[in-house]
Amino acid sequence: MKSIVLRVILLFFPLTTYAELSFQELAMLSDKPEQLQGRFTQEKYLSVVDAYLNSSGLFSYQRDAEILWETKEPVQSKVVLTPTAIVNRQGEREIVSLDSETNPMVGVLSEIFFAVFTADWNRLSGYFAVSGEQANQQWRAELIPLDAVIKQVVSRVELKGDTLLREVVLYESGGDYTRIHFHELSR
Amino acid sequence: MSRKTYKQRAALFSWVLFITLICFFALKKELLFDSSIFTLLPQSDQQVVVRNAAEKMTARFSNRFILLFSGSDEKQVRHAVSVMADGLEQSEYVGKVIWQLPKAELIDFQEELFPYRFTVLDARVRKQLLAGEYERVRERAILRIFSPLSTGKIAVIDDPFGLAAERAFNSFSALKIGLSNGLLKVTAAKQPTYMLSTVLTASPFLPELQRGVLAIVDRHKAQFAAQGVTVSMSGMLMHAAAGAKQARSEISTIGAGSLLGIIIAALLVFRRFKPLLLMLIPVGVGCILATAVTILIFERVHLVTFAFGAGLVGVSVDYALHFLCERHISTAGVVLRRILPGLLLGLLSSVTAYAAQALAPFPGLQQMATFAVAGLIGSWLTVVICFPLFTRDDALQPLAAAELFSRVRRSFPRVDQSRVLAGFFLCLLLLASVFIWRSEGRDDIRLLQTSPVQLLEQERHVQDLLGLGSSSFFLLISAETLEQCLQEEERLAPLLERLREAELFDDFQALSRVLPSLQRQAENERLTGHLYQGELNALYDLLKLPESRASEAGDRFTQEHGNTLTPQRWLELNGSEGWRHLIVSRSAGSAATVIHFSGAYNDQLKVKLAELAETEKAIYLVDQVANISHLMSSYRLQIINLVVAAYLSVFLLLFVRYGREVWRVVLPPLIASILTLALLVGLGQGVNIFHLMALILVLGIGLDMGIFLIETDESPYTWLAVSLSICTSLLAFGLLALSRTPVLHHFGLTVLVGLSLVWLIAPTMRKA
Known about the structure:
The complex is a heterodimer of chains A (187) and B (768).
Chain A lengths: L1 H11 L10 H7 L5 E12 L4 E12 L3 E8 L3 E5 L3 E6 L2 E7 L4 H14 L3 H4 L3 E8 L2 E8 L2 H6 E8 L3 E8 L4 E10 L1
Antiparallel strand pairs in A: 1-2, 1-11, 2-3, 3-4, 4-5, 5-6, 7-8, 8-9, 9-10, 10-11
Helix pairs in contact in A: 1-3
Chain B lengths: L2 H26 L4 E2 L13 H15 L1 E7 L3 H16 L4 E5 L10 H5 L9 H8 L3 H13 L16 H7 L7 E4 L2 E4 L6 E8 L6 H20 L3 E6 H35 L2 H25 L3 E2 H8 L1 H16 L7 H25 L3 H28 L9 H11 L8 H20 L14 H14 L6 E7 L2 H20 L5 E3 L8 H26 L3 H13 L7 H6 L10 E5 L2 E9 L4 H13 L3 E5 H35 L3 H21 L6 H23 L4 H21 L5 H20 L7
């Protein structure tokens, strides 16, 4: 369950060029753009069938207000995240709608979620251990969940970027992984 | 030594021996204080199955307590939880501390349900399948697979439609609790809040347990407060301890107050220490004997009995004062002979009044009656046996106070001489009667509540945050088998959903929501079969995966056909722990489950559910609060009957002795009682059962007064004795009226007003 949080958090986090290796330093350097948008391509590897599922689309985010994740290919769908709800849309139809009232889990999700976007690293550091390296303008970081329950779903997260976050890879414990690449980013 | 003195000494010796023996046996039994509302109440006349369920729910609340830790700094809060857990685990009274998920149990609860993904379906999925909207289930499966927010693993072969994930994501826990880094986090709280729950190894009423466990909790609580972490508690333990503490402090205050009153009054009147010491002996013996007998007969002494009993001091002093005052003008040889008829009648009338209470099938009343009767007899016997011996050599000595009191008394107008006064009483009585007649009884359970408001609020706070269902309000489903119960619940579910949508309550917890009936599971599997037939190939096409894979997934469904979640298997799951208590009983030929409601449910819900329970044979609405209010109202009426019956028998008894003069004895307490009741109604208190019980006391003391007076031909010394007695009682009960416990407050106020009126009315009915 927590994997959702992780994925969402990590996808949108804009990192600076001089990303350091501890949360404390990240907190000092991290850029907090009011809004950010761009395109993404996603590649999901499913080990059971040894196959890749590819998709792509657009995303945008307004700080503290909402995040829009719009898949264009191969199916059309929209996911809207607000501080209190997660809404899945296909066309004009609401497919899944969850709010923190009916599903307490959503409350927890949005809590952590908005901690990230207000750069509340103190809260985040309760969830991950970080390590990484930096060369020229490129950096690479690895996050390991501290929580054993989360770890059972996401064993490891890889982040790559330059001025902004460019790629996220989520490794699942069963051998599956999801690679998301961001491009055409604009503020 | 004369033969008489020898006999007196023998009697004294036997009496002391008897008291010592009783006390010896009582001391061997442990004294347990009780402050639970429910033990005051009679066994209900409900059906066995309903009573069992109610008892089980109450017990569940009794033998555990919950702590919530909250603060702004999450790390501090988490640290506090583990420190408290370590502390509590050291206590021998704490059996189990639940605060984290042990590493060994980290296998996701959802994993163990995975084999039942075709039979235990998410409610929404089931609804769509029933409506034949198969393509919508497929659409959602596709969305999940491509979504960056996918929930859980994607098992394209085992579960291509993500049925397990759907069920897991919408799964609701019995409590509003989530796992956060291995600890139990309260999801509905604004600040980071974590839960710790414990199971006690013994009764929460055990004083050692209260001391041991609460010392640990309080010590840590103070320590955490400095770190900005607050701890709130819920559970019977907290209320039991508060009740016991309050009882101890109120008993000592009230006891000390009335004792002080006696001492001051006695010193003022007698101006010597000996009568004072003598007075205290029967009072002390009465209290000791009453306590010992009560402990021997009852398992636990309720705080209400004890506090009420402390007031008995005031009544038992009657006999001593009567003897002592009379002794000032009668010699040692004749004093007892002169006052014995009066003493005996006084005892008989009081004991009759109290024994009437014992007839009510109300454990609380029985306990108080036992306490009172034992105490009165003890004091009375002490006076009769010991006093002649102890005052053998005292000289006759007139008392100045007697003359003073007598003058005051004679200054009152007399009813048989003043038509105006008689008319005044008549009008007053008529008015009061009309007033009482038009009033309504008050049988609110809050009268029985002994916990301070602050604790009750803390309790509510914790229960609300956790979404705990009430342990005193629930639906009970009873049938021959658990399967039938589950089917019944499922039949009921749509109605409950409608009530929830109408916002009659927040949520309900029913077993069938996590463990569907076998009938429903079979139906679910059929529906899933249709889904696979119609949509599996389309799904694989969209994913651009080969058809061979689709048939592999289809085969998997066929292989796992008939994988049903039987109650037996369900009970073995880790995830069922928080739900198991919903099964109240399960034995050959009978089973019962309960449905709980959480959130602030309103009266409309009660009405709706009551209607439902009326029409459905297998469904009962259990509402302990209403049951108790109902019981209190029926016992209020019963007590009125008992009081009237007691009064009539006392009246007959006295009529035999006094003939037409009996009105002088009976009317003062009767008029005082009626006026007191009217006054209470006027104060807006509404007449409740405790007012009536207090009136029995007013009658007892009032009758004593009348009897003593008429027996000694209204001697100034008798008037002095009864006035002193009322004075001490007023002091004792006046303090009771200040009690924070509603029961004691009502009791004290009634006696305060009643006795004052008796003292004011009695002189107007004097002979001369």
